[in-house]
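Key result, reporting period 2: structure in, sequence out.
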């Protein structure tokens, strides 16, 4: 009987330790905002830091919802989209951009308007979208290309052909390179955005399903999550050399790098957030797992407010947004651009 009690206490201790980092909670759930009557998959989010508003695409519902975090509810709904996959908010021009998979469009809306100001026709499979504050350009993934356009006029300047359909993207501002996951080819392409060409290809070999990607700009490390087999991989962004590998949970659809805490958050559709600790640029370890909910495979990290948003989409229950506090909480006032900017703080 005593042995059983000791084993139980040991197991509970492991669970408690798995959700803590250096005596601190890895992630603390602050609150949950329900998306009433919205079921199915959710897309990748954007954040308006000034107004505290979160933009959430509902892929299967063909709608987009803007949540006011101060009020804790949706204050703007946009219908008539065709599988919205990703959204980008541009605070300077008060515009938001919605990439629609099946329509092949990037539709451009002014804040608060349900009527598109214009659109860019990519013809097929519009995917991820990202803003480059240094070069003041927007990059949108579609078909087997990366579209490049200027948000001041919303005209397509050109595109860069890659080996397959682009998924997750991460920008290394200092070197003007956009790292793009290409799961159909088991590789990551580094696109030179200045010269609009592929500068480096990183083959992943046996590792497949590389949808999630993040970047450590200071350590110059590319962080990639693969689904088959479930692995976390780290690469030197200069040479493409692999420096680390870890087993992870399955069905990881999104990830983010928290530079202040040297933590990497992986969102799994299985209902868990896995946290990886960066010991140094070449060494990583599993820090723990934090319960989320099944279907929570998209996330958005806003470092300045110390919050991690997780989009939970389900088929039989209403969707919801979980808001977690990262270790240390808020660290600074919101910056102008909360999407695609590199963290310049020292690690």
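The corresponding designed sequence is given below.
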């Amino acid at each position: 009987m005593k042995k059983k009690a000791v084993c139980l206490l040991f197991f509970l201790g492991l669970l408690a330790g798995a959700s803590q980092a250096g005596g601190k909670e890895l992630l603390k759930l602050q609150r949950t905002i329900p998306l009433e009557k919205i079921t199915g998959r959710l897309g990748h989010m954007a954040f308006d830091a000034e107004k505290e508003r979160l933009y959430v695409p509902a892929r299967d519902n063909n709608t987009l919802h803007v949540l006011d975090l101060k009020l804790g509810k949706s204050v703007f709904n946009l219908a008539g989209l065709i599988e919205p996959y990703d959204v980008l908010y541009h605070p300077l021009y008060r515009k938001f951009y919605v990439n629609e998979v099946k329509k092949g469009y990037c539709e451009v809306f002014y804040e608060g308007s349900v009527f598109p100001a214009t659109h860019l026709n990519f013809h097929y499979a519009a995917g991820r979208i990202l803003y480059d504050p240094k070069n003041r350009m927007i990059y949108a993934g579609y078909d087997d290309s990366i579209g490049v356009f200027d948000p001041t006029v919303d005209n397509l300047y050109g595109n860069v052909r890659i080996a397959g359909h682009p998924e997750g993207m991460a920008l290394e501002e200092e070197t003007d390179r956009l790292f793009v996951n290409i799961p159909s080819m088991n590789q990551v392409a580094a696109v030179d955005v200045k010269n609009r060409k592929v500068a480096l290809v990183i083959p992943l070999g046996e590792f497949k399903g590389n949808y999630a990607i993040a970047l450590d700009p200071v350590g110059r490390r590319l962080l990639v999550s693969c689904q088959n087999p479930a692995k976390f991989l780290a690469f030197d962004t200069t040479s493409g050399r692999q420096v680390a590998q870890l087993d992870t949970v399955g069905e990881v659809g999104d990830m983010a790098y928290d530079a202040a805490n040297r933590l990497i958050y992986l969102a799994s559709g299985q209902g868990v957030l896995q946290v990886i600790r960066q010991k140094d640029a070449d060494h990583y370890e599993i820090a723990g797992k934090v319960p989320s909910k099944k279907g929570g495979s998209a996330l958005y990290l806003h470092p300045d407010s110390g919050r991690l948003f997780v989009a939970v989409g389900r088929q039989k229950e209403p969707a919801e947004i979980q808001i977690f506090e990262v270790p240390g909480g808020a660290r600074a006032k919101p910056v102008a651009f909360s999407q695609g900017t590199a963290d310049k703080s020292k690690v």
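Confidence is low (pLDDT under 50) at residues 1-18, 332-347. Residues 2-18 form the longest helix (17 residues). This case is discussed further under Risks and Mitigation.
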